[in-house]
């Protein structure tokens, strides 16, 4: 959630009379994201991006993981931090569930193979 609000602040997206440009979010979710970004220092008290927030918005990672990367650079231990971030950002292969689209694709391929076996 924090990444979305950071990106919105960076781009200064405004509604142009054509309907919302972003999905409608619950006000509580937005406030929680803003509070979180203030806590980690990505936003100041006036909800403006800080230098950390600008740097985090350029990283293709969640704000927690991006913060780890930046701290890894600061403390000169980037290699082990990148290994940890890569592990934390990947989906767990032991608990990976099929998406409904994937399940449908598997079912279709089974039906096609069964149809070829019958004919």
Automatic annotation (TrEMBL):
Name the UniProt record assigns to this protein: RNA helicase
InterPro entries per the UniProt record, alphabetical: HA2_WH, Helicase-assoc_dom
Pfam families: HA2_C (PF21010), WHD_HA2 (PF04408)
The Helicase-associated domain, residue ranges: 32-119
Name of the top EC class for this enzyme: hydrolase
Keywords recorded for this protein, A-Z: ATP-binding, Membrane, Nucleotide-binding, Transmembrane, Transmembrane helix
Organism encoding this protein: Capsicum annuum
Keyword ATP-binding: yes
GO molecular function, one term: ATP binding
Gene3D superfamilies in alphabetical order: 1.20.120.1080
EC code(s) of this entry: 3.6.4.13
Keyword Nucleotide-binding among UniProt keywords: yes
Transmembrane segments: 68-90
Swiss-Prot/TrEMBL catalytic activity: ATP + H2O = ADP + phosphate + H(+)
């Amino acid at each position: 959630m924090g990444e979305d609000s950071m990106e919105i602040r960076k781009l200064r997206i405004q509604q142009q009379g054509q309907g919302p440009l972003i999905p409608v979010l619950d006000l509580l979710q937005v406030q929680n994201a803003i509070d979180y970004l203030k806590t980690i220092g990505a936003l100041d008290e006036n909800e403006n991006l800080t230098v950390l927030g600008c740097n985090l918005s350029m990283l293709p990672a969640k704000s927690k993981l991006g913060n780890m990367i930046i701290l890894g650079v600061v403390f000169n231990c980037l290699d082990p931090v990148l290994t940890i971030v890569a592990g934390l950002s990947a989906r767990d292969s032991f608990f990976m569930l099929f998406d409904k689209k994937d399940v449908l694709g598997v079912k279709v391929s089974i039906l096609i193979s069964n149809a070829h076996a019958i004919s």
